Amino acid sequence: MTSSVIEVDNVSKAFGGVIANKEISLTVPNGKITGLIGPNGSGKTTLFNSIVGYHPIDDGSIKFEGNEISTMRVQEIARLGLIRTFQQTRIFSKMNCIDNLLISIPHRTATFKDMFRSYDPETLDKAEALLEFVGLYQKRFLIAGELSFGQQRLLEFATALMNEPKVLLLDEPTAGINPTLINGLIDRLKRANTDFGITLFVIEHNMRVIMNLAENIYCLAHGELLAHGTPDEIQNDQRVIDAYLGAH
Ligand code: ADP
Ligand code: MG
Questions:
Q1: Which residues sit opposite 68 in a β-bridge?
Q2: Residue 121 lies in a domain
Q3: Ligand 1, from 15, 49, 225: best to mutate by most atoms within 8 Å of Cβ?
Q4: N or C: which end of the chain has fewer CB within 10 A?
Q5: Residue 120 included in any domain
């Protein structure tokens, strides 16, 4: 039996009068790829923010590997191996690709200037290997801001892998990427799961992508959990179809 690496139990979160998440319970199985879908504004990003400690929750419990994390801060949670990427790409656009990877890992040095002198050969090797993995090795000395949008997302993905997460939460990783790069990204996400053993929890707006990627999928609507099932079950669930149709 597969164990759950993340357990969300009855979690609620409101912003003023807006109930972004209402009594959500779900689990993310260890070693698998799980999807999170739902129309815009249904509370997907809010749930990710709650899981990684970006903001406190109003009610409920969130466990990572059996331990309560809902009162912990982002950095503490990241150190446990639970890391997320953002709906809007966050990279240092004036820095080159390899430096983006190098500065992403926790460092021991005191000043910003010292940071670049402190990397051991293994860390450099790891950064190069990850750039190779995402197909950006040839561009390692290129300023990140000069990469295409899709390549910036691949760089961000490599940056997240640099921290050796146990679980990676990806918020709409394919948003704004052209179809050719999307296939490459899907392939890398699957390989991060199979080859590196990283559990993935992926928010995705593109139905084709999530059906191809995830073994099990949760669907939110209006801040509540609407459905849970295999891609086939979700695709044929009338409540899910209605939620998406109703959103357009
Ligand atoms: P999704 O990612 O599914 O599109 P979000 O989680 O971003 O949805 O948003 C869910 C609801 O919560 C929306 O109505 C949104 O406007 C609101 N919301 C999200 N974050 C904030 C915030 N920081 N302050 C106020 N309202 C927010
Ligand atoms: Mg969102």
A1: 63
A2: no
A3: 15
A4: N
A5: no
Q: What is the pLDDT of residue 223?
A: 97
Average pLDDT, consecutive stretches of 10 residues, N- to C-terminus, the chain (248 residues): 90 97 98 96 96 96 97 93 81 92 69 62 92 96 94 92 94 88 92 96 90 95 96 93 75
Distances (CA, A) of 235 to 26, 127, 213, 232: 19, 38, 14, 5
Q: Does this model's pTM top 0.85?
A: yes
φ and ψ of 47, to 5 deg: -65, -45
Q: Which residues contact 109 (CB under 8 A, 6 or more apart)?
A: 115, 117, 118
Q: What's the CA-to-centroid distance between 88 and ligand 1, angstroms? A: 14
Counting the structural domains of the chain, the total is 1
Q: Is the minimum distance from the CB of 21 to ligand 1 under 6 angstroms? A: no
Residue 73, pLDDT score: 93
Ligand 1 neighbourhood includes 42 CB (under 6 angstroms):
yes
For 57, the domain range is: 1-72+168-173+201-248
Contact assessment for residue 33 and residue 193, using Cβ atoms and an 8 Å cutoff: yes
Token pair for 160: 């997240």
Q: How far is the CA of 99 from the centre of ligand 2 (A)?
A: 28
Protein residue whose Cα sits closest to atom 19 of ligand 1 = 46
- CB distance 5 to 202 below 8 Å: no
